[in-house]
Amino acid sequence: MCGVFLMKNKTYNKKKIFFVFTAAFLVLLFLIGRLVYLMVFDAGYYQEKAEALHERERDIKAARGEIVDRNGTVLATNKTVCTISVIHSQIKDAETVIRMLVKELGMEEAEVRKKVEKVSSMERIKTNVDKETGDKIRAYEMEGVKVDEDFKRYYPFEELGSRVLGFTGADNQGIIGLEVKYEEELKGENGKILTTTDARGIELEGVAEDRIEPVPGNTLQISMDYNIQSYAQQAAEQVMEQKQADGVGIIIMEPDTGEILAMVNVPEFNLNEPFKLNTGEDTSGLSDEEKQKLLNQMWRNRCINDTYEPGSIFKTVTSAACLEEGVVSLDDTFFCPGYKIVEDRKIRCHKVGGHGQETFVQGVQNSCNPVFMEVGMRLGADKFCGYFEKFGLMDKTGIDIPGEAGTIMHKKENIGEVELATMTFGQSFQITPIQMASTVSALVNGGTRVTPHFGVRVLDKEGKEIHRFSYEEKKEVVSKEVSETMRKILESVVSVGSGKNGYIDGYRIGGKTATSQTLPRSANKYISSFIGFAPADDPKVLGMCIIYNPKGIYYGGTIAAPVIRDIFENILPYLGYEKDESLMREKEEE
Amino acid sequence: MPRPNKKRQWDYGLICIVFILVGIGLLILYSTSAYNGEVKFHDSFYYLKKQAFATALGIAGMFFTAKMDYHIFQKFAVWGYLAALGLSTAVLFIGDEYNGSKRWLSFGPFSFQPSEYAKLAVILFLASFVSKHVKKMGKMGMLLKVMLTILPIVALVGTNNLSTAIIILGIAVVLVFVASPKYAQFIWMGSLGIGFMAIFLGLESYRLERLAIWRNPEAYEKGYQTLQGLYAIGSGGLFGRGLGKSVQKLGFVPEAQNDMIFSIICEELGLVGAAFIIVLFLILIWRFFVIATHAKDLFGALIATGAMAHIMIQVILNIAVVTNSIPNTGITLPFISYGGTSVVFLLAEMGLVLSVSGLIE
Predict the structure, then answer these.
(1) In this prediction, does ipTM exceed 0.90?
(2) Which CATH class is domain A58-88+122-222?
(3) Could you give the residue numbers annotated as active site of A?
């Protein structure tokens, strides 16, 4: 039987087996060739595709630069906050994890349990956990519990200069104020981590990750002085409370450099909670749109974003223009019967009985409207507009805070006598408070129009200066002589005139008051303001206070001037301007 | 001629290569399955444990079979074949479904894949049948008769496991080809087969879609598996990422321990490692060839040839699919892909070939 088999296993069988083997050999060789093609020539293409599939790019937030005041006090900084998450697949002992999280985070057990027991790649338990708690949780070293650190913008003084500093949004970019304006300086450069993940998106451990380190933002030093700002804020809050006003704005600046030491808009809001209304109003019932409207309103910087009729403070501009043009001299005499007829209209003075006979200087001291209408007529509409423009009132001030409002002014060809008359005492057109303060600065500082600003210089992390900002200055918008005259007149306004509530014994203070009725006039709402500067012979500080819609007595000289006096009284010694004993004696003798 | 009473001399080359393949297979299986085991069963050793158990069982079976005189199986060849038919029928009715295919029979904690057994049964049955009718093998009628006898198992297995049916058919064609003294008729058969294939493909549009996916896997959602395999292969480069360092096995290549395992070999061990594995299979096939050509009788020669056909078809189809050289069809890589039944019967098959080698003088 075996022999039969042996006989049958003939040569042709062997040949054919060899044929099959050869065929298999060749096909396998071909497949090796195919592999060479795929793994050598096509490798780059597939590798790239595979990497794109595996790699997750994660940003490492750059620390945003700080904002410091002129003395280095930190006004805006970053706080490390932690995000606590759990990775379901890595948790060994869910009960212990739940107990620990409930204890450390003070959350409801049911809520924590739901999140811990949820089968997901990663579940966020709580965000914005302070670093201390985060460190504590990390110290437990529980598997599956992840503590991620992140930066959050933090404003140590909460409400201080809220509309000036501004705040940042979720992705750490500036939303209003200086945070927007200096975004490029502050933001730094985010870093990147390239990690490899599995198909579920979970990062692989032990796989080398590419890392691009973040570059922190630079420090912005601003001209604001923390002490002055907070004192001014207190003063503003006080007067707002006393006068039941809608709001109070205060600007304190250096008239010769344009540096702003303080800019207050009360009520301020808490920069650490910029999406919560400062009125304490419940927003839960409002639509998103309505809520956003209220927030936008709250974020407005009235000193910059809103215009108003400046009223009598504007008489400084009219005076300077007329003096410059030579249409009036200080000793020219006028007569005020309590009104002036312009065309067919009787425009009244604030003093019903009239000021009677007075010189131009007395007219300014009295803030007498007929005097200004008279000199304004002498100047004429064309020239008036010419000076208006020359003093820079038609342009924006160029302050480094976004959203500055422009001037609302009559068209030149529409200015008749009535319009001209009202304009001379600051009505029928609108400018921003910062515009008013900047213009008066130019009139009293010797005639140089400076750019009001906060940004002073940019520092690196070590506090080394990277660059200093420079601002435009326009020389001689008014002559030195007229500027000197203006200082004298305005000093007399405070020493003997309508601004006497701004007077501080031992200092030379110049200033001008204003009380303007807001539109519509029928509402009987007023804006009371006072602008003051010191020392009057060489102004180093200029302060302006605007009280919106005060109740009761609303005269600027009565309610706004004392605010600036109070501030000056405190900040002048602080800034190094001591009381002059000789001035005090002089005053006593009077 | 009396049978010489000398000590059996197994082909130790074959034993070596089988052990190398099984060892490397387990290592690679652990590497590819650890992630899936962890994700699905919270046990990275889940697949390895099951495979190691089956391998141990298979090795015992291999030596048991190797020690037997293979001629004993000639008596049981028909019964073995009928059993395969019975089991394949049973799976249609009481089989377990997994990933949409009914391929498993459960026996308590063990599951069993009849189609894996069917391959071995067909090899034995055909080796026996053909060697009995070898004188008539040159005739067309005999060829058809052989083909008709295995048609039932091809059809039964093919209902839910087309790939295995193709392998069985391939084994049959190789055995008949080797047994027949002629060539020309096989060219006819080949052409006929291609024509039949074309009709088969055209019958169902989803099969044509497979062709389209094959041409351009990036354009189709169903090309995902193929594409992921190509990403893995391409990522390997010359020397690979290193054993255990594949990223594609982390859920990107679905069930990386199964049909697509070769792509992970490419990713981890690179072109060099992948070529090495292919060379191992070539050596294995070469040992089959040597044993087949030196076998004491035609039955033994055909057993070795059947095993050769089995391994070569499966290796070639698997690697061709993974490298997208042919349209996708689910075929496992012998000794390396996960599958308990497969490794048990593969090792038993090796035992059979060893038994054949033992009688070589």
Answers:
(1) yes
(2) alpha beta
(3) 312
